[in-house]
Design brief:
alpha/beta, 2 domains, 8-stranded parallel beta barrel, 12 helices, 8 strands, 51% helix, binds flavin-adenine dinucleotide
Length: 302
Amino acid sequence: MINNLFNQLIITITPFLPRWIVWKIAGRYVAGETGAKALAVVRQLNDKGYSATVDILGEHTNSKSEAAEITREYMNIYDEISKQKLDCNISIKPSHIGQDISNEILQTNLDKLLLKAEETNNFLRIDMENSTITDNTISLYKNCRRKYKHVGTVFQAYLYRTQADLEQLSQNGSFNFRLCKGIYKEPAAIAIQRRRKINNNFLKLLRFAFEKGIYVGIATHDLGLLKSAYTLISELNVSTDKFEFQVLYGVPMSGWLEKHLKNNFKVRVYIPFGVDWHAYSIRRLKENPNIAGYILKDLFRR
Ligand SMILES: Cc1cc2nc3c(=O)[nH]c(=O)nc-3n(C[C@H](O)[C@H](O)[C@H](O)COP(=O)(O)OP(=O)(O)OC[C@H]3O[C@@H](n4cnc5c(N)ncnc54)[C@H](O)[C@@H]3O)c2cc1C
């Protein structure tokens, strides 16, 4: 109750705060405004043994020229990653490069990115947005997968449909996906609401991926879930080339990242950057008030 009021207060006041104050809060989760800044962070992380994925902040682009510009920006990043020999791939949101304009524009932009990823020997992950476009994102992914090897997507453990989606996809051979809990507020008719139940489903889906030999990015900061993932990995004797752990840049992990590396487990850090950081931070806070609580807890911990 008190937590909820606290979160609500932060959400109400944040849009009225000066940008520099919002940056004080959001800045630890965002690598900066430019690709150069983001890739400098990638370099530092690579030097410590971590892989990375970068994401230009923004979503719901509604002009064709803007979507084309963002696509070009991503293509330049692929070139830079290759030139600087970084261990880093790219995550994109469909609504950032054309989802809200037309399927044709979205597919054209994705094709450009996937060809560039192929040329630079890299990989592209299609992030999963809210449930209004889950069907579309999955069919987009299926189309891409028919044409390209170096593409993956994301599944959300809070959606009831995910088990069936994974089963269906696995009928056409192995694939590569990120498993996360899901960040958007979704109705109870389609999404599990209770944390414990979401966690149970997460582990059920993780077991499914391990048993089928599907490559999975285990994307969570939940230390209890990480413990259970370790137990599963050891119980099923899962090979280290079949999974990686993924975290968001800046989220405190109580020594777990170092522990993963010691165990020879791959860790990938998701690094958002871009000029849209302010609008993005406010939208995320409004969408999911719990984030306000995490950030505050983290500030106080520091
Ligand atoms: C690499 C990566 C990619 C993702 N991609 C997607 C995607 O494509 N689609 C999608 O819907 N969701 C995505 N998510 C978000 C995910 O679905 C969850 O909403 C988010 O990770 C919080 O869930 P959790 O598993 O960390 O567990 P929680 O139970 O929510 O959190 C566990 C603990 O982690 C800490 N924590 C969690 N999140 C934060 C944060 N933002 N800031 C500070 N502390 C935090 C808190 O201390 C919390 O108590 C992604 C997450 C990661 C790590």
